[in-house]
Amino acid sequence: MKIPVPTSVIRIAVIVVVFGAWLTFEIHDRPRHGIDDANIFLTYAENLAAGEGITYARNAERIEGFTSTLWMLTGAAVFLVGGSERAMLILSVLLVILTQAVLLQALRIRAEANHTRAGPFLVLYGILILASPGYITWMTITLMDTALWGLVVAAMIYYLLLPPRSTKQWIVAGLLFAAAPLARPEGLLVAPALLVLLWIRTSENRPALSGMRCGIIGAAVVVVVIALTAFRIRYFGHPLPNTYYVKVSPSLAYNLQEGFAYLFRFVTSGAVTGVSVAVVMVGGAAWFGRMIDVCLSGRNAGPRWGMKAFEALSLAAVLLLLVPVYGGGDHFVMFRFYQPAYPILCLALLWPLLDGRVMCRPVIQDLRTWAGRHKSTVFLGSLAITGWLAFFSSEYSWMRVADRHPLHHEFDIADKGIDLGTELGALFYRGTEEYPSIGVIRAGGIARTYPGPIVDLMGLNNRVIAHFPGDRMGIKNHAAFEIDAFFLVEPDILIASPPIPPDRSNFDSVALKGLFNEKRFIEGWRFGILSRTDIPEFRYQGFFNKQFLDDLSGHTAFEYHDTRVWSDGWWRRIERQDISSGLDR
């Protein structure tokens, strides 16, 4: 199946995405790597490409600490042919260009069907997309799976708006729907729900044929889900990815509370999102209202109910908005989970204007006639209003993003983790028989370079912590840690720092839920500097397991000094280095 795409559509898609990606790349100081979470994907991909199986870091344990099987496999293919992070960045940009080309093509076809010039609408859509630094950033330079999921969502929406007409188109649509569960866990819900909407859209004229085709696609989705689940159980030992057990609280009420708060922040983050959500709510309500009228009037209430394109678009957008609510939202800034839905919301803003049946109302028809006589004025005015709404009225407008660099911290965490892994590897190189295990809170960058075992204390890449009982309440996506679980997986070194008096807490102490004040921890751990005697610049300051230090005391290559000791409820700094202790203490 081949859809002829005009050069103008491709040109707009390339300009918008490439310029936006370059802009956010520069704003974030040309990051060398993706964000820390992206490096979790990449370490799995590297290991798989190297023939070490689906494993995290240098750990032997098979575990699924990533959220997109398809993106991880894509990364493995890139590494297998000698690619790097730059290749993943280029691939992400290409995926977003394809996403925009698909939706621009849908917009163009709708305009031509209503005998309306498509150019102005394509330009306005491009402005809305470019106006969202959150969308451009999350889809490109972060190297996360959002670009792939965004393309799958856009392609399914395309066929929802413009249902397949040939057998080849139905086959392509079936492949896309079947790929959704592999692209993101929410594909398990999104794909079947959109398929139901597609069935309603196509069942009005030939219900039997439509039902058969949608049924075949539904069966393909079920087969993929069953195969994926069977693989997970056999390979990992659990039916769901490790991310589910870590991130989703067993309390539905808590998840919904956090999820709706996340949705509310997104809706109120800017004029474009606020207006577009209002529009899709109206569109969805219109279909439900019409269905209620059909039921009350006693007419056929079967599949011949039918569904207009804009109603289907609205219901699909509402679905994409509600799905993240169940999981309780996300901790990242700029609304990562809603970025794949953002182009759909932009499309929903423009789609009603292309619908001739909406335009035929007398008042709107008069406005349309006036607009036809003043095309330049209307277009320039629309351009100015759209640009202002999009670029300056958002919580994360380009002006504010350029000033605050909201995701710079995430790139910095990855860079520091990669550097720390290299430094720790050098510290213990040929100094011990085996590299010591390290416990980490930030598990992405360090996994790319540290040659020894890593204990992910947040549980994403650790089965014991992921499945340990707990309420999963606290710092979003960092709440699976439990103190009792720590002593089951107790590492040799803890990559964390205690709060400095008079502060009672810091991020590490909150994420580790007061571990530093736990009696068992105080008795079994020390905080100080471990260095090489032959190369003093190779050193690390942090928490060390006393048993590890005792085992290390027989190695003349290392020297240890306490820099903080527990006293009167604090890990207090030792002011005079001459009273610090060595490994033999």
Word description of this protein:
With 585 residues, the chain is α/β, with parallel strands linked by helices. The chain folds into two domains: 7-30 and 64-404, no CATH class; 409-579, no CATH class. Helix content is 59%, strand content 6%. It has 26 helices and seven strands. Strands 2-1-3-5-4-6-7 form a seven-stranded mixed sheet. A hairpin with a 2-residue loop joins strand 6 and strand 7 (570-573). Helix 2 (36-49) crosses helix 3 and helix 7 (146-161) runs antiparallel to helix 8. The protein is elongated and about 85 Å long. Residues 357-364 and 578-582 have low confidence and may be disordered.
Structural domains: how many: 2
Number of helices: 26
Which value, in Å, is the CA radius of gyration? 27 Å
Query: Main sheet: which strands, in order across?
Result: 2-1-3-5-4-6-7
How would you state the average pLDDT, rounded?
Answer: 87
Shape: elongated
Low-confidence stretches: 357-364, 578-582
Distance between the termini: 74 Å
What structural class do the secondary elements suggest? alpha/beta
SSE inventory with pairings:
Blueprint: H1 7-27, H2 36-49, H3 69-80, H4 85-113, H5 119-130, H6 133-139, H7 146-161, H8 167-183, H9 187-202, H10 207-235, H11 242-247, H12 252-267, H13 271-297, H14 309-326, H15 342-354, H16 356-359, H17 362-373, H18 375-392, H19 398-404, H20 408-428, E1 438-440, H21 445-449, E2 454-456, H22 463-466, H23 483-486, E3 493-494, H24 507-511, H25 519-524, E4 525-532, E5 539-545, H26 546-552, E6 558-567, E7 570-573
Parallel strand pairs: 1-2, 1-3
Antiparallel strand pairs: 3-5, 4-5, 4-6, 6-7
Helix pairs in contact: 1-4, 1-5, 2-3, 4-5, 4-7, 4-15, 5-15, 5-18, 7-8, 7-9, 8-9, 8-10, 9-10, 9-14, 12-14, 13-14, 13-15, 14-15
